C-alpha cells in the first residue's frame, strides 16, 4: 500500500497513473460532442449503488474503467458549445495544469509554514486584482471557496463595522435580483428575517437608486441602521450591473458599507473593451470576484477583496498550535488571519499559471467574445416571432421564453417552456437553464463558451421550439 503514497520513491508510479487519467479525460473530451447523455437519476443511481467500497479493484486502470461507467460517460460537459445553462465556464489549460500541480504539492494556504511561496503568490494575485478594481493602496483580500463564502465574509465585516451591535436593528439593501447568498449570509450572521431589504429593479434589471434612497431614508427614520448596500455587478439571471457610482454616493451619504458582488462580472476587470461597465467599483468597501465564473478557471477559485486591509481583522482568531499572536509581531504572513477557512487549497496557482501563460488580456478577450455572442444572440431572439426576450444583455446571459401565437393560456405557455427545457436536457443535445420573471416561466442561456456560435444558438432555439410545439400539440388536442 505504501507504493500509493506520493513521495520521492514513487515518482514513476505517480507519472504513469496521472498520465493515464489525463489520457482518458483527453480521449473523453475529444469524443464527446454533446453536453450530456440525458441520463436520469433512476438509471444512474443503481450503477453507483452497486459499487462495493470495501472491495478495492486491482489497480488504477480498473478504477478508471469503472469511473467511465459511474461518472465520465454521463457527466455534464461544460466544454460543449451547446452547454448554455449555468455560470460554468469551459476551463483553460494553464489553469488545469496549475490544478494538477497544486494538488500534488498539496500546500495549505492557512499558514506560511504550510505553504511558503504559495502564500506570496496568493498575496500577489490579490494585490493584482485589487489594483485592477482600483481599490487603493490599503486594499487586501483572500481567496475563498466561492462567491457565497465571499459574500458571507463581506457581510461579516460590514456587520462588525456597523454603528450598532443590536443585530435586530441592522438592515442590508440589495436588489430583488441579487444572489440568494445575501439572504443566507444575513441568517448565518444572526440578523432577523426582515434584515435584507429587497430594492426594486428597473426595466433593465438594475437596482433603482431612487427606491434605494427612499428605503435608506425610511430605515434611518425608523431608528434602524443601514449595515450594507450590496450592489450586484452582473446579476446571475440577467447579467445586469447595478449603477455603481450612484450606489457609492448613497453609501457614503448614509455612512454604510458598500459591497459589490462581482461574482459574475469580474471578468470585466480584464476586458479590453468593456472595463467601463465596472466604473464605480473602485469605491466599494468590499468586492466578491469568482474567477471560476468569468476567468475560465476550474472550480473553485474565488476571492474577497476589501478596500481597507484592517477590516479583515474581524476574521482573525489565534490558535497556539497554528498562528499564535506572536506571529503577528514577527510579521509572518499567515493567510488564515484573513480567512473564514482554516485548511485551504492553493487555488490561486491556477490563476497564476493562467496569467503567466495567457496574460490578462488573453482572458479578458475570451470574456469579451461571449459578451459579443450574447449581443448577437439577443438580436436573433428579438427578431424571432416565436420568442420573447427580456433584456438586452450587458454581460452574457439571455432570458427568453417561447410564446406560441395561437395559445393564450399563460399556464400552458409556462408548461410548454418548462417541458422544452426538460425534454432538451433529456435529449442531451443541449443544456439550458430556466428562471421565473414576474411569476412566469422563462428559459435562460448563460454564454461562457467562446466556441459557441450564433449557429449553435439558432439551432438550440429551433430544438426548444420543436419540444414546446410537440407539448402544445399533445396538450391542446387533449384539452379540446
Ligand atoms: C454565482 C454567484 C454567487 C455565488 O457564487 P458561488 O461561487 O456559486 O458560491 C454570488 N453572487 C452572484 C451574483 C453569483 O452569480
TrEMBL record:
It comes from Streptomyces zhihengii. Belongs to the group II decarboxylase family. Keywords: Aminotransferase, Decarboxylase, Lyase, Pyridoxal phosphate, Transferase. InterPro entries: Aromatic_deC (IPR010977), PyrdxlP-dep_de-COase (IPR002129), PyrdxlP-dep_Trfase (IPR015424), PyrdxlP-dep_Trfase_major (IPR015421), PyrdxlP-dep_Trfase_small (IPR015422). Pfam families: Pyridoxal_deC. One of its GO terms (molecular function) is transaminase activity. Its cofactor is pyridoxal 5'-phosphate. This is Aspartate aminotransferase family protein.
Amino acid at each position: 500500500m505504501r507504493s500509493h503514497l506520493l513521495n520521492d520513491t514513487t515518482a514513476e508510479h505517480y507519472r504513469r497513473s496521472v498520465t493515464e487519467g489525463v489520457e482518458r479525460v483527453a480521449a473523453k473530451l475529444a469524443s464527446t460532442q454533446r453536453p450530456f447523455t440525458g441520463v436520469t437519476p433512476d438509471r444512474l443511481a443503481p450503477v453507483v449503488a452497486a459499487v462495493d467500497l470495501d472491495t478495492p479493484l486491482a489497480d488504477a486502470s480498473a478504477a478508471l474503467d469503472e469511473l467511465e461507467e459511474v461518472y465520465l460517460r454521463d457527466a455534464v460537459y461544460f466544454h460543449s458549445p451547446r452547454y448554455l445553462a449555468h455560470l460554468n465556464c469551459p476551463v483553460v489549460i494553464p489553469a488545469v495544469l496549475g490544478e494538477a500541480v497544486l494538488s500534488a504539492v498539496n500546500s495549505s494556504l492557512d499558514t506560511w509554514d504550510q505553504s511558503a511561496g504559495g502564500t506570496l503568490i496568493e498575496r500577489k494575485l490579490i494585490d493584482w486584482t485589487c489594483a485592477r478594481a482600483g481599490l487603493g493602496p490599503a486594499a487586501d483580500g483572500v481567496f475563498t471557496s466561492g462567491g457565497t463564502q465571499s459574500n458571507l465574509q463581506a457581510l461579516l465585516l460590514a456587520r462588525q463595522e456597523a454603528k450598532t451591535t443590536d443585530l435586530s436593528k441592522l438592515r442590508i439593501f440589495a436588489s430583488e435580483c441579487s444572489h440568494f447568498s445575501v439572504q443566507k449570509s444575513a441568517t448565518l450572521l444572526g440578523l432577523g428575517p426582515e434584515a435584507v431589504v429587497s430594492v426594486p429593479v428597473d426595466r433593465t434589471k438594475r437596482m433603482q437608486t431612487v427606491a434605494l434612497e427612499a428605503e435608506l431614508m425610511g430605515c434611518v427614520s425608523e431608528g434602524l441602521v443601514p449595515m450594507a448596500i450590496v450592489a450586484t455587478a452582473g446579476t446571475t439571471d440577467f447579467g445586469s450591473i447595478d449603477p455603481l457610482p450612484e450606489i457609492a454616493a448613497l453609501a457614503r451619504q448614509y455612512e454604510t458599507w458598500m459591497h459589490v458582488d462581482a461574482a459574475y462580472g469580474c471578468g470585466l476587470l480584464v476586458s479590453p473593451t468593456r472595463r467601463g461597465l465596472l466604473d464605480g467599483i473602485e469605491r466599494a468597501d468590499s468586492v466578491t470576484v469568482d474567477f471560476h465564473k468569468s476567468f475560465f478557471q476550474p472550480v473553485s477559485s474565488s476571492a474577497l477583496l476589501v478596500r481597507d486591509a484592517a477590516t479583515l481583522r474581524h476574521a482573525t482568531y489565534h490558535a497556539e498550535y497554528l498562528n499564535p499572536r506572536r506571529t503577528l509581531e514577527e510579521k509572518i504572513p499567515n493567510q488564515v488571519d484573513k480567512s473564514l477557512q482554516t485548511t485551504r487549497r492553493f487555488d490561486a496557482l491556477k490563476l497564476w499559471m493562467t496569467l503567466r501563460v495567457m496574460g490578462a488580456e488573453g482572458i479578458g478577450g475570451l470574456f469579451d467574445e461571449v459578451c459579443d455572442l450574447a449581443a448577437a444572440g439577443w438580436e436573433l431572439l428579438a427578431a424571432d416571432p416565436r420568442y420573447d426576450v427580456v433584456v438586452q444583455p450587458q454581460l452574457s446571459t439571455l432570458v427568453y421564453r417561447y410564446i406560441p401565437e395561437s395559445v393564450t393560456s399563460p399556464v400552458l405557455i409556462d408548461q410548454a417552456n418548462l417541458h422544452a427545457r426538460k425534454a432538451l436536457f433529456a435529449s442531451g443535445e443541449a443544456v439550458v437553464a430556466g428562471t421565473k420573471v414576474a411569476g412566469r416561466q422563462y428559459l435562460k442561456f448563460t454564454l461562457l463558451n467562446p466556441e459557441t456560435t450564433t449557429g449553435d444558438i439558432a439551432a438550440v432555439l429551433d430544438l426548444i421550439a420543436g419540444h414546446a410545439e410537440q407539448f402544445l400539440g399533445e396538450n391542446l388536442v387533449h384539452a379540446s
